[in-house]
Amino acid sequence: MSSEIAVHPVEAVRWSSRGDAVRIVDQRKLPGEYVERELRSLDEVCDAIATLAVRGAPAIGVAGAMGLVASLAEFVNDDPARFARRVAEHAARIRATRPTAVNLPWALDRMLVRAREGASRSPHAQLEALRDEATAILEEDRAMCRAIGEHGAALIHDGAHVLTHCNAGALATAGIGTALAPIYVGAERGIRVAVYADETRPLLQGSRLTAWELSRAGIDVTVLTDGMAPSLMREGKIDLCIVGADRIAANGDVANKIGTYAVAVAASYHQIPFYVTAPTSTIDPDTPTGEAIEIEQRNADEVRRGLGGLTAPEDVAVYNPAFDVTPAALVTAIITDKGIFRPPYDFSRGGRSGR
């Protein structure tokens, strides 16, 4: 095992230098161009989340809370009652941008609780209280990522080959990621890890984002198209799979980027551990099973024109769900900031650390 190294993942979501805007890495531009944007207005915040300029369940929760604050700054001269109503209106619009990931409504609900507690105060005081809450959500997300990394790193042996799908790294959170957090922590400890990143069609989050951020951090990464993973498994070249999650039902069913279910099925057939990583805020106790999870349907042109020019007939019907649901029976364990949960899943009790 080599000595410990410094790993510096990208910082995808943070306050602007003046604290009056949400500063994001525009992920639509990667890997060809690195662009940071500052979101101030409600329209800018909603557009950035809806168009995947900022994406990943934890990241959109953080960006939604911080964006709510930024979008309200110009209205601090309202009367207190009008400002309080505006908080609810802005939160409702931001909430509607992405329906599947639970982190966004979770973060906005926290903001609304804080808003109701101070609804009689001046708009300036209300805004500062909301800023404090959004900052707490940001810092908690960073700490959550680190905790997931610490728990998950114990499952990775030196020289491991890890398959991941989509992007659940630093670009998907405010910290070092969820699925990639154990890899980053392992690298810091000198554990040698080689990552295979599924391309993740149709928006190529694996090849555009995961490969970009791992390469930038000095992690060994190889890109493959989505259909190639089972062949690698058959050849004995995958030791474990680690993916993220956008919503986890109470029974352990997992909604994640489309294609995750296929990876889980292949991993099960080849008897390869399939791990899901997520903050505890992604676990939705009000959703009993994956059947109750609303799956976002996205624009057909993401498939027809996903690589620039037409890749399918212009008028052909397209099935384009953003997510699929992996049954709990295919999940080896769920790695959270509170520990590792194994089946049968009971999230009312604390998870275990390590193996």
Describe this structure in words.
This protein is an alpha/beta fold and 355 residues long. The protein has two domains: 13-145, Four Helix Bundle (Hemerythrin (Met), subunit A) (Up-down Bundle); 152-341, 3-Layer(aba) Sandwich (Rossmann fold), CATH 3.40.50. Helices cover 36% and strands 15% of the residues. It has ten helices and 14 strands. It has helices at 42-50, 57-72, 80-95, 103-117, 123-153, 181-188, 205-216, 229-234, 260-269, 301-304; strands at 13-15, 22-25, 36-39, 160-164, 193-198, 220-224, 240-243, 247-249, 254-257, 274-277, 283-284, 323-326, 333-336, 339-341. The strands form three sheets. It has a seven-stranded mixed sheet with strand order 6-5-4-7-10-13-14, with helices on both faces. Strands 11-8-9-12 form a four-stranded mixed sheet, covered by helices on one side. A three-stranded antiparallel sheet has the order 1-2-3, with helices on one face. The radius of gyration is 20 Å and the shape is globular. It starts with 12 loop residues before the first strand and ends in a 14-residue tail after the last strand. The model has no long low-confidence stretch (mean pLDDT 94).
Short description:
This protein has helices at 42-50, 57-72, 80-95, 103-117, 123-153, 181-188, 205-216, 229-234, 260-269, 301-304; strands at residues 13-15, 22-25, 36-39, 160-164, 193-198, 220-224, 240-243, 247-249, 254-257, 274-277, 283-284, 323-326, 333-336, 339-341.
